[in-house]
Structure formats: C-alpha cells, structure tokens
C-alpha cells in the first residue's frame, strides 16, 4: 500500500478481467481483504466499504483512497450492474468518514 500526498492510504481495487457481479464481489473480497462473512451483495459491499473497522491497519486515523482500476470492460459488459456499483461507491463515500473512491485507468 502507498499513501497519497495528504497521508491517506491508497488501496487499489483491480477489476481487470471482471465481467459480472460475482466477479466484482470476489475481487472486492480479495483486494480489500474483506472478512469471510462478507455477504457478496451490494448492501454488504456498501456496509463493508463504509466500516472503518474493516479498513487496513492505520487507515481509520489517516483515511483511505480506494482507486478502482480496470473497470471499463465491466462497465461496458454490464452497464446496469456498473451503475449500481458506482452508486455503492458513492454511498460508501458519503457514509464512511475518510473514505474516498476514485476511478483510475479503465
């Protein structure tokens, strides 16, 4: 993990090769080190992203920048699902103090 100029931890969610919701949820579980009980649904993802107790060590005090990269193929393959994913990212950002989600290279 790296940090941004403001000292927030930067975590990358790599969606390269993801073409459906199940793949997105699996990648979130892996890249974000979500617990085994992560429900792999939209509500569970929003809750997990917004919960500072699930962030990497030290991130609660510093904040997290989640960079979503490799997203474009998924967005093109499943535009309705991608719209929901974007809403989940936005909701989590609104609920999670110190969480910032940004789209990186597609």
Automatic annotation (TrEMBL):
Q: Which CDD domains match?
A: Barstar_evA4336-like
- Please name the SUPFAM superfamilies in this protein's record: Barstar-related
* Domain Barstar (barnase inhibitor) span(s) in chain numbering: 10-94
Q: Could you tell me which InterPro entries the record lists for this protein? A: Barstar, Barstar-like_sf
Q: Name one Pfam family in it.
A: Barstar
Q: Which residues form the signal peptide?
A: none
Q: What family does the entry list? A: Belongs to the barstar family.
Task: Return the protein name.
Answer: Barstar family protein
